[in-house]
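batch_manifest entry 22 of 60
target: NitT/TauT family transport system substrate-binding protein
source organism: Nonomuraea maritima
requested by: lab member K.T.
priority: normal
notes from requester: please return tokens only, no post-processing; we will run our own comparison against the previous entry in this batch. if the run fails, retry once and flag.
--- input ---
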Amino acid sequence: MTPVSRIIAACLALVTLSTACTGGEPPEPPEHPAISVGVAPTAAAAPFFLARSEGYFAQEGLTVDVRIIAGGAVAIPELMGKSLDLAEADYVSTLVAYENDVPLEVVGEMYRAAPRAYGLVVPADSPVTEVAQLKGKVVGVNTLRSTATLAVTRRLAGVPATFREKPYPEMTGALAHGKLDAALLAEPWLTNGLRSGALRQLGDPLTGPAAGLPMAGWMTTRDWRKTNPRTLDAFRRALAKAQHLAATDQEKVRRVLPTYTKLDQGVTGEVTLGAYPTATDAAALQRVADLMLEEKYLNKPMDVRKLLSPASGAGEA
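--- output ---
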């Protein structure tokens, strides 16, 4: 083979490899490259911020406007009002909304609970030493009727308590000043509060029946998905890369946490991380719906598969 022939053969091989890696023709550009996305400042959102810092969104032709929210429940009105295109989904509030005919769809999974990734905490000097002593007390959660309240309700096992909304970054201060008696904290806010010496952990509600529970996903409206299938596919492709990165490189996660939580690297370097699934598991999500039915968050059984958006390219489904 002549030198010129070798060069031509090498170029053809590269073209073939490139085509194989991208699955053939490059994807069509998104219908709307500028999107608004709501996320809560917890470890669950790390893949989203990795997708930004690693350039995955840019590679897909997307420009993402980030809106920090307290939790998925507060994003639902913004999705319906079209001030957000996609948002972090709290599964409990999403399923409650769906039961009440709000046309939401789950388009991807973000995060699942793991031991010590969440904690039920009290002030360090609190006389409360066991869950039963929370009778009549005020428990802080990031949003009401959420996965947080479901988990704490299960842990309370009939002990009557009052839930009060408070964003995660404000919970340690609210506990220290007597505005809350206890709270459910997610990482990295759990480690931050415990490390400060202001808090003491009472237990982990995300164990037992709630172990490994799906905690957060991505949601949008049915109409937005139908009119923006290529935009959604681009978002999913970027997040798929980031979810895989988060699942395989925890140090990357720990390094990105300070960029959106504003917490010190000394704190984020000690956090306990949950799981970053690389695919949506309908059976795992069904566990959330079944627990909700047991705790009367839902009025009737629900098949969660009805909420799951088609995998890709289903603009008119």
